[in-house]
Amino acid sequence: MEEVRIDLRIPDKEREMEMKRSSELCFKINHTMPTSDECRKLIEELFDNKLDKTTIINPPIFLLQANKVKLGKGIVLLNGFQCMSSGGLVIEDNTLISLNCTIATNNHDFYDRPVITCKPVHIKKNVWIGVNVTILAGVTIGENAIVGAGSVVTKDVPDNAVVVGNPARVIKYLDADKFQS
Q1: Which of 39, 70, 116, 171 lies at a CB distance of 3.0 to 4.6 Å from 32, suitable for a disulfide?
Q2: Backbone φ and ψ of 45, nearest 5°
Q3: Which domains does the chain show, CATH number per domain?
Q4: Comparing C-alpha atoms, which of 12, 77, 5 is closest to residue 46?
Q5: What own/partner pairs with CB < 8 Å and gap ≥ 24 does 83-89 have?
Q6: Measured on CA atoms in the order 159, 163, 169, 174, is the torsion positive or negative?
Q7: What is the reported pTM?
């Protein structure tokens, strides 16, 4: 996974326009009745009308660059989801993300802080992420994995693993044969 570096001192109209668009749509979403058709339309607009009907997103949400987020089918994002998405985020089908989760696909260079370092996050199919989880840049979470509440995920999570803690570590593996197709 190659790191991308963005120097924030160098103007980038496209990035700035997308950040403005995402910020304004998130504000509108977060100040609209969450169960209304209007809210759903705003959420669909945020994701460039590529949101599957089976995906549920409960406000409030916060995204810096929604155009760098790809969502599959049957996803549930509960209230308080926030993502620094400059590095890109893919969430595959049937993933459940609980309350107040944060995904950070970017960080700052340690010595030149106006430079952000970006690596994508990939969450594979059928993942369950507990309350108040933080997932850091460059992480892939494997199929069927569970990330326990309050965990900080700093490295890849294998398929069928249950991880907990800060930093998150594997405490057991699930039986892959027991999952329904």
Answers
A1: 39
A2: -65, -40
A3: 11-173 (2.160.10.10)
A4: 77
A5: 86/6, 86/15, 86/116, 86/118, 87/4, 87/118, 87/119, 87/120, 87/121, 87/137, 87/138, 88/118, 88/120, 88/121, 89/120, 89/121, 89/122, 89/123
A6: negative
A7: 0.95
